[in-house]
Design goal:
41% of the residues lie in helices and 21% in strands. By secondary structure, the chain is of the alpha/beta class. It has a six-stranded mixed sheet with strand order 6-7-8-3-9-10, sandwiched between helices. It has a four-stranded antiparallel sheet with strand order 2-1-4-5, with helices on one face. The termini are far apart.
Length: 285
Amino acid sequence: MVYQLQHVSVRYQEQDALRDTHCTIEAGKWISVIGQTGAGKSTLVQVLKGLIPVIQGEYLIDYQAVSRDARGRLQVRPEIGYVFQYPEHQLFEITVARELAFAPRQQGWSTSHIQQKIAEILPQIGLSEDVLELAPFQLSGGQKRRVALASILMMDPQVLIVDEPTAGLDPIGRATLLQYLHQWQQQNNRTLILVSHHLDDVAQYSDEIILMHQGVLIGQYDPVTLLIEQSHLLEQHGLILPESIQLLQLIEQCYGQKIEVDSCREEDIFARILPIWHRKEQSYD
């Protein structure tokens, strides 16, 4: 499916949360949404899920307009899974096992099917079966985030929205979770929308990046265009470049040589930097 917003605006308490917003979410892509706090990132993805009303504009799915009621409310999209920024807003059952089983039970899954799915998902997101009989609010912040994610993945959504999913995780946990999300997205040809302020993660995984500032969608870019060719846009909007791209720029300045790259992944940037580094080092010997 292709999801589009055209001229969409949202207001909260007489304040513009989104203004005249345009974007396109194509199937099978990893799209990251970035911007400072208050930029409108969460509002944008909540509109895509159908959680909040819009005051103007159109929401199209596969190029067909989605109807809304007189108050601007859209139909909640069941094929879009949404993991909230704060897991406390999502978790409500008395045990983790019941939390993970809730949505499948509503769809008529058998107990054996539910247990099989839980056993499949838990180790992939870094949780053991020991947590199943605990109350979600007994868990650490990182564990609660993993449980919230697992509860959505139980239903295998066509589109997965994850709002700051790695907050509260240590570097190893963060890397492991993102690698799992990437594997899930690639193997199942799913669409993933990541809201994040970690631009190193954004550079590593994104097919496209949406930049937002104070409720305005500045643009939708491929990573090389935004993070390298137009990196000044990030500085203008208070964002810090990924460390690998900072290193790339430093090497270019030191050696007075433009280094052409076609990917923002860390390993691809290093693959372009190292040969130049070695040649320069040899020339000094």
